Amino acid sequence: MSTLAQTMMTARPADSGLAGPGELDRYPYGDAPVADRVAPPAWDSADAELGRVSRRAAGSRGRGLHGQLVQQLGQMIVSGDLGADRPLVPEEIGQRFEVSRTVVRESLRVLEAKGLVSARPNVGTRVRPVSDWNLLDPDIIEWRAFGPQRDDQRRELCELRWTIEPLAARLAAGHGREDIQQRIGDMVEIMGHALAQGDGITFSRADTEFHNLLIQLAGNRMLEHLSGIVSSALQVSGGPVTGCDRPNEVSLSHHARIVDALATGDSHAAESAMRQLLTVHPEVERVVPAPREH
């Protein structure tokens, strides 16, 4: 076993276990009834909502004011609390969230880079429509996955994984990178140990690393650029959508089959095992076709 595997298995976090069913509802979106959400043209009509969010931000400023404001405004935009073409006045944002104009300005720049807002001379900063958002941005994936659009986001992530990962597995089997293959094998060993110990956090981390390494092994830079989608999907799935969502023996066996296929260079077996992994639960079959054996 490599040093990496030993480190991950011995350095266990204080808390273990993955998010259980219903835990997503404890995300901040859950404390705002839909009927209370309003998005009129002026900030004054949204005092209650902004006050609620700003108090929540003030209570968790360990992330830093800049990161806090990006997170809170991003959540409000993605959830629909701040609708398209809604004007965002920096001075008013600063007052509501009790942050400086510099923090507001930098936060809006981050949101603009994500496609959520646009700033134009003589027009100001406004919320952009969904069609302009960078939907592959990890933050937006997270905000959508824990907001009102959670079902659509999980389905879309599942469909993307179905497209990306079987191809990555097939390509990876054609590359003899023993160093990466060893690390992928280590991740399966770590997952097995974590499963036996009931350590869901370590299982999840090793699982994410497994899939990232597999895409890296595929040797396709464009696929590698999409690895963040897979990581985000594993982190925010929140329900039994694929075989990676909960630690279990079936999931572990499919991961092990992929490792065996990589070792023998069997691209078909690697692709087939990945498809089986992504179709462990019947919910997926309503989204993607069942795997075909050739």
Can you characterise this structure?
It contains 13 helices and 3 strands, in the order H-H-H-E-H-H-E-E-H-H-H-H-H-H-H-H. The protein has a 3-stranded antiparallel sheet. A hairpin with a 3-residue loop joins strand 2 and strand 3. It is elongated and about 65 Å long. The chain has helices spanning 3-10, 47-58, 65-79, 90-97, 101-113, 138-145, 150-172, 178-197, 200-217, 221-225, 227-236, 249-264, 267-277, and strands spanning 87-88, 117-120, 124-127. It is 57% helix and 3% strand. The protein has 294 residues and is mainly α.
Put the structure in a nutshell.
This protein has 294 residues and is mainly α.
Structural class: mainly alpha
Query: What portion of the residues fall into strands of 2 or more residues?
Result: under 5%
Compute the average pLDDT. 76
- Uncertain runs are 11-62, 238-243, 281-294
Strand runs, count:
3
- Termini gap: 35 Å
Helix content: 55-70%
Kindly report the spatial arrangement of strands forming the biggest sheet.
1-3-2
Main pleated sheet? 3 strands, antiparallel
Number of helices: 13
Please state the overall shape, judged from the principal axes of the Cα atoms: elongated
SSE order, as H and E?
A: HHHEHHEEHHHHHHHH
Gyration radius from CA atoms, angstroms:
21 Å
